[in-house]
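Cross-posting from the chemistry board since nobody answered there.

I work mostly on the small-molecule side, so proteins are not my area. We synthesized magnesium ion and want a rough idea of how it might sit in this target. Sequence and SMILES are below. Is it possible to get a predicted 3D structure of the two together?
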Amino acid sequence: MLDGVFQSGEPYIGRNLPVSLQREGEDRLDERFINVIYQPIFDANGAVTGIFVDGFDVTHQKRAEDQLQSLNHTLEQRVEQRTHELRSALLDLEKETLERETAQVALRQAQKMEALGNLTGGVAHDFNNLLQVVSGNLQLLANDISGNLRAEQRLENALAGVARGAKLASQLLAFGRRQPLEPKVVNVRKLIQNMDDMLRRALGEEIELETIVSGGLWNTLIDPGQLENAILNLAINARDAMEGRGRLTIETANSILDDDYARLHEDVRPGQYVLVAVTDTGAGISPDIIEHILEPFFSTKTEGKGSGLGLSMVYGFLKQSGGHLKIYSEVGHGTTMKLYMPRTMQTEDSLADANAIPAKGGTETVLVVEDDDAVREISVALLTDLGYRVLKAHDAQSAFAIVNSGIPIDLLFTDVVMPGPMRSTELARRAKALLPDMAVLYTSGYTENSIVHGGRLDAGVELLSKPYTRDALARKVRHVLSNAQQHKIAVERLEREERPSVLKSQVQRHTALRVLVVEDEPLILMSTIDMVEELGHTVHEAKSAEVALGLVETQSIDVLLTDVGLPGISGIDLAQRVRERWPNVRIVFASGDDSAKAASGIVDADQLSKPFTIDSLRAVLAEAS
Ligand SMILES: Nc1ncnc2c1ncn2[C@@H]1O[C@H](COP(=O)(O)OP(=O)(O)OP(=O)(O)O)[C@@H](O)[C@H]1O
Ligand SMILES: [Mg+2]
């Protein structure tokens, strides 16, 4: 180095130079660090004549620096590590809090539902017992009054009321997890496939129905009838949420709910489940509503449209069956309702398959009209085999000849499209003119949608799509025949109602009034009409304000007796409109509370509190006359 400085004339500055020194009396080399300066000394000519050398040992300093540096480094590392640790601890904490909160919310919700369930279940139970007493006595009474047509009619009304009460009670029992269940080993795939027809009918043509059923689906132990009910309920909710337009997807899958899931959901046991998910593309459910939708009687639908018991029943039924209901919803996008039902290892119960239930036959007379010989012979054979008396024709004209011959026929079973001058619809119409009680069932290779909704047949007609199985034929024929039977009974009842009242002349003591009764509840409407008639007045009836407004245009009336809560225009609105155009018509509000009169602003309106007696009705009407 000295030589270098001497030759170049450039100074040399070395810092922290490592040198190995051997101290006197010691063998090993000692590593030291030094700083040195070699400064050339010049003469007058600029030649180097000497070198100034300065140097000192900086080992201590260097070691201290090194240490500091490594300390710095480790410190940085440790800070980084700590930060990381802290961050993940925070995340854990957040997650834990969230989990705890979710679990707490779930617990609170479950406790609320449990309490509500116990309450409703208990009430429904007692209610059912009371209904039992009422209906039992009513039925006994039937013997005592037989022959008295009016009394029989009232008894029938009362029994219809009891039936409605019983239905309500059974819905409440379902929510309260106390309904009698008949669990069977069910393969849900088949059950859903069997529901296809019913679902399509319930949904209407503007809603697309997609069923995605996975193979190898596990079995579950569940009441198949109630499960169908539950799925139908969800489908109807979905339809309402989509306002009749959209897509409904029903999916089935095997599903495992793990410990994590169970921890977050009160009352869920981890394990294997069969999942049915019902998804719609509807309005979705906002968060403040979603916590209430399982409660009985919670409904956002207009009065008369929803009882608020649908989801309550689904929920109670699943709980009672060891299952679980999970709701996902996004406002504006749609809703998924997931039904989890516990897996069973048992093999499928043959009863669970609706198709396996032996289809019932009958002994009625069926007229089969079909132009295709092979198809006709098969359906004739099937129906004969089911016990029916079968007549056959190969076109509409010859079928009509049979009808015209006067042979009693219970069911006309006809192909929709046939050659010949007479169309099947014309045949049905003309045949029904001769035999009004006869039922009609169409069959066609077209699907129901293309035929009925495509406008070729009236809505409400019955259609069996070809090809059909023996069971499908049997079921459909029974269904159509029982409908016709029911219709017949209803018509007979109607005719009986129209019979003039014997009592009328006896009570006709004061001026007869023309009373327009507006009431949407059929049972209340019926009994009100009865009472008004019994008091010797003339009755016009309307089930809605819209109908009533149409009526007052053409009929002159003295009294408007109206319910307040009507499906469309309210009773108050109706009263105001009537008062405006026909100021002489007396207004009577029949309602559960007495706010209607004040709300209407009609100062001379009268008020009948429900439930009202014939005496209070008499008093109100007496004022009007
Ligand atoms: N798929 C859905 N999309 C949006 N909202 C829904 C859906 N299903 C249920 N809801 C909401 O939950 C409420 C309660 O439903 P629930 O089936 O219990 O009663 P409902 O349909 O109103 O009456 P009911 O079923 O007794 O005729 C509904 O009124 C509606 O607000
Ligand atoms: Mg519903």
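Reply from a structural biologist on the board:
Welcome over. Reading the output above for you: Confidence is low (pLDDT under 50) at residues 351-357, 499-509. The pocket of magnesium ion (ligand 2) is lined by residues 233, 236-237, 306, 310 (CB under 6 Å). Happy to explain the token format if needed.
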